[in-house]
Design goal:
There is one protein chain. This protein is 82% helix and 0% strand. The chain is an all-alpha fold. α2 runs parallel beside α11 and α4 crosses α5.
Length: 517
């Protein structure tokens, strides 16, 4: 138990470092330019406490359960060498983990024109199909950049023909499907498959699964837009909590807990069932490891329930109300720099970002540090929030941002080191997690209500913007790494030449000359 206690303390420190800046920014706004009612503020603070505790339990649970489960599945699937089994298991796994993803449920609940079940099934089918594509890419060592270029080209062609109401939602769906349930499992799956391969590109190819799984939902929702005609619907902002006493505050959260306990039980059960059936077919895991995984699943479940209760009950109304107040100011343009500041810090509070940065650092043996990844992601998300708030204020179509952004990212993929392309496109999906869906999206919606914009076309798209800009900033990190490596190589070469020259000179001199020197 002592090892778990030590780990929990470590995770608590990480969660506090990630969340405290967001709390500080919101408090400064609340006590200066964006006054809010005591009820909203108290709900936000209580939600923040739950968010910190949830992140602590969740990140420990992922290490103990999701990562070894995904690694085991990937290793056994590859060892079977049965292509039909891999395709079937890959598709089922994609469906299961997508339906389990809480971010997708949050997004579906906020889209007014498409029934929740229709959107969830379309997205799950896209992820299942593209997880199969990603697994086949790893098995046959197919380069990632050409595949990304082809699939995104298809997406942008489809975007020309679909209704405007589907555009932003389609690109948002690509971001929310790669959240705290999906990323740990999929990334561990990639590591497990690459462990069986013995070629020099195996480690590079362990990344890229999240990238391809992010394209599937975009294409499936765009295709849905061609055949499905929405019935309409109106956006309903999250209810602003009306709290006068501490008892009312407590009852607000106690009403939320049962809802998310049930949702997370339904979400996590398919993964447990899948893994249980998998173990019956592919045996060989020790009892000690199974107990460890079981403890990890309990931590994961508790963490997600606390996290989602905190962000949905406390953060979502606060984000929406803050957006309304700031965008209603005479100097509404201030929402752009404020959005950038929030974006810079909020990405560090995403549970899946922690998983990605740690795994990148381990796979690259420290060549790409977690700190460098976090900085690149923070800069990327800050830029994306600035652009998203500009869209809310001006009503400019999302295509004016998405098209050039992905064009730059796709062109860059042919020039940066191979591993950075895969990491960059993985990080885009990872950065847009539950904090984006439950705080930034309501923040943009609230601002859109104040300026009188169209919620579906102007506010939606925040998740897509957050998923796009890290593609560029991480690839810039890759270019910087390549330049540094080249300089170090040249410096090492020059030193080797000087050393060999000096050695040759000493060999030409006799003993008497050396003594005189």
């Amino acid at each position: 138990m002592s090892q778990y206690r030590t780990k929990l303390q470590e995770k608590l420190k990480e969660a506090l470092v990630a969340v405290l800046p967001i709390i500080g920014i919101v408090l400064v706004l609340c006590f200066t330019i964006a006054p809010v009612s005591p009820g909203i503020l108290l709900a936000f603070l209580a939600g923040a406490v739950l968010l910190v505790a949830g992140m602590m339990f969740f990140t420990l649970g992922v290490e103990l359960s999701m990562t070894p489960m995904g690694g085991r599945v990937g290793t056994c699937m590859t060892k079977s060498k049965n292509l039909a089994v891999m395709i079937l298991l890959g598709f089922i796994l994609g469906l299961v983990i997508t339906v389990s993803e809480p971010d997708l449920q949050v997004l579906a609940g906020q889209v007014p024109s498409i029934p929740d079940l229709v959107l969830i099934l379309a997205v799950a089918g896209g992820v299942g199909l593209f997880l199969v594509v990603a697994l086949l890419r790893m098995m046959f060592s197919i380069p990632l950049p050409p595949m990304l270029l082809v699939f995104y080209a298809i997406a942008f062609v489809l975007a020309i023909f679909v209704p405007k109401d589907f555009l932003a939602v389609a690109f948002d769906s690509g971001g929310v499907t790669t959240g705290p349930m999906t990323v740990p499992f999929i990334m561990a799956l990639g590591v497990g498959i690459s462990a069986i391969r013995s070629d020099k590109h195996a480690a590079d190819d362990s990344f890229g699964l999240v990238a391809l799984c992010s394209i599937g939902p975009i294409l499936s929702v765009l295709a849905l837009g061609l055949i499905y005609h929405p019935e309409g619907g109106t956006y309903e902002p999250p209810a602003v909590p009306d709290i006068d006493t501490s008892v009312e505050l407590w009852s607000l959260f106690t009403r939320g807990f049962p809802t998310y306990m049930k949702e997370m039980a339904i979400s996590i059960f398919p993964i447990i069932l899948f893994f249980g059936i998998f173990l019956l077919i592919f045996k060989g895991m020790s009892k000690r490891k199974l107990i460890r995984i079981g403890i990890g699943l309990v931590y994961t479940y508790v963490g997600l329930v606390m996290f989602l209760t905190g962000v949905n009950v406390g953060f979502m109304p606060a984000g929406n109300y803050l957006g309304q107040v700031i965008a209603g100011l005479p100097y509404r343009w201030v929402i752009v720099p404020i959005g950038m500041l929030i974006g810079y810090f909020i990405v560090r509070a995403e549970p899946a970002v922690y998983v990605l940065t740690k795994q990148v650092e381990e796979i690259t043996s420290g060549a790409v540090s977690a700190a460098a990844m976090e900085m690149s992601l923070s800069v990327g998300v800050a830029v994306s929030l600035g652009l998203a708030m500009t869209r809310v204020l001006t009503g400019v179509s999302i295509l004016w941002f998405i098209l050039p952004g992905y064009a730059i990212a796709l062109m860059g993929s042919f020039f940066v080191p191979k591993i950075f392309t895969a990491i960059a496109f993985d990080s885009g999906g990872v950065a847009s997690g539950p904090m984006t869906a439950t705080f930034l999206l309501p923040f943009a919606m609230g601002a859109c209500v104040s300026v009188g914009g169209n919620i579906v076309t102007d506010a939606f798209g925040v998740v897509a913007m957050v998923a796009m800009t890290p593609l560029i900033t991480i690839q810039v990190l890759g270019l910087v790494s390549r330049v540094r490596s080249a300089r170090m190589g040249r410096a090492a070469g020059a030193l080797a030449v000087e050393t060999s020259g000096a050695q040759a000179a000493f060999e030409l001199l006799g003993d008497d000359e050396i003594i005189e020197l």
